Amino acid sequence: MLQVSATDKILFEIVERIRKFLDPERVILFGSRARGSAQPESDFDLLVIKKSDQPRYKRSAPLYTALADLPVEVEVMVYTPDEVREWSQVPQAFITTALREGKVLYEK
Fold first, then answer.
1. What is the C-alpha to C-alpha distance for residues 106 and 38, in angstroms, rounded to an integer?
2. In this structure, are residues 30 and 60 in contact, taking their beta carbons and an 8 Å threshold?
3. What is the per-residue pLDDT across 15-67, written as a single tens digit (0 to 9) for each?
4. How many whole angstroms separate alpha carbon 13 and alpha carbon 16?
5. Which helix (H) or strand (E) holds 58?
6. Which CATH fold topology does 6-107 show?
7. In contact, 14 and 70? CB cutoff 8 Å
8. Domain residue spans in the chain?
């Protein structure tokens, strides 16, 4: 029988809430959780890609409310597809690393 880990259950819940609140194009897990080097207290780093006219600093606010009651810390960065294309050309940008090392959790 297939075993589902507690981490997998949390990730499923996180992605479902993000889908409900933002209807993103993609959700990418990056950082220590994606690399497999996470500690039990490590947060979940997520890059969410979604078309938006809002300033970047306002895009994540609804998600922090939606994820506030989870028993883990979640860091969410919401970028538009155009911003991802632009920043992915910068070698030291976190987006470049997230795209290279990250795991796609959801894609339309």
1. 21
2. no
3. 999 999 999 999 999 999 999 999 988 999 999 999 999 998 899 998 989 99
4. 5
5. helix 56-59
6. Beta Polymerase; domain 2 (3.30.460)
7. yes
8. 6-107
